[in-house]
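Morning!

This is the sequence you dropped in the shared folder:
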Amino acid sequence: MPDDDHHHDHDHDQARAPQAPQEPLRVSILRHGGHLVASVHTALDDGQLLRFRHELVDQIGRYRARGVIVDVAALDVIDSFACHTLRNLAQVARLRGAQTVVVGVQPDVALTMARLGTSLHPVATALDLEEGLALLDGPGSAP
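The structure's back. Tokens below.
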């Protein structure tokens, strides 16, 4: 009887696989002192953005991170959903005791965001990883 149940579950998983493949996220999350550095390597769809947020929030707790840097230098577009997700990530991180800084917004991306009126505010932004770390480590880094 258990074999039949297992077989049935397996068939059910196969039927769902094309709709929601759990391919690895193209994001690396590394520890840097008391901070986490998350580098997004390629565009993420909405579902992947939500998985990324969940994974990062989980690691904030696991490693007791005080700061989070999200490096978006590889992204050609940051749409309104991505902005919303990053703002939400920063809010959740703050509730878990970590400050968030987004770094690496490309010039063309920044121009498009300004033209469309999308914003990461109130999330802190910095030019690059070095500046982001300085913001997290510097005096008065909290908003």
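Headline: Confidence is low (pLDDT under 50) at residues 8-18.

More detail when I'm at my desk.
O.
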